[in-house]
Amino acid sequence: MIRILLAILAVFAAWSAMDFIMHGVVLAAAYKETAQLWRPMNQMKMIVLHVTTAIVAIAFVMIYVRLISPKDIIRGLAYGLLFGIATGVSMGFGTYSVMPIPLHMASVWLIGSIIEMALGGIIVGAIIKEESTIERLFGR
User: 85 lies in a domain?
Assistant: First the structure.
């Protein structure tokens, strides 16, 4: 249980840092150009955003715990890449199809989501992994 909580916290922290870089730095100019589409900063629901990220981190880790086997960094990375493609396509190009956002923004959302989720997969794979047969027999 401790490893699961640690994985959730680590994934949440990594994704929050990556979101800051992606949205606050890389896409800052694009958000200014499309300011009419977004709430002003003083009206943004940051608590809702953080709770949403936490819920997705919990689901991400629990899917790995319950459905991925064997558990290791390589499978964590593969899981993260697939999860990132699924979320990135819908976030980037799903939004692009219905909102007048620049193609550049949709592309960064796609690539950023893939990178974020891959990082999450590496983290969860490193924290929640199965011991090899040799490790079980002889210790670490």
Answer: yes
pLDDT tens track for 79-98: 999 999 999 999 999 999 99
Q: What is the residue range of 7's domain?
A: 2-37+47-131
- In-domain check, residue 138: no
SS (H, E, C) 76-97: HHHHHHHHHHHHHHHHHHHHHH
Backbone dihedral angles phi then psi of residue 69, each to the nearest 5 degrees: -155, 140
- Please indicate, yes or no, if residue 140 is contained in any of the structural domains: no
Give the amino acid at 26: V
Prediction pTM value:
0.87
Whether the CA torsion 125, 7, 68, 119 is positive or negative: it is negative
Is 95 inside a domain boundary?
yes
CA 81 to chain centre: 10
- The tally of domains found in the chain comes to 1
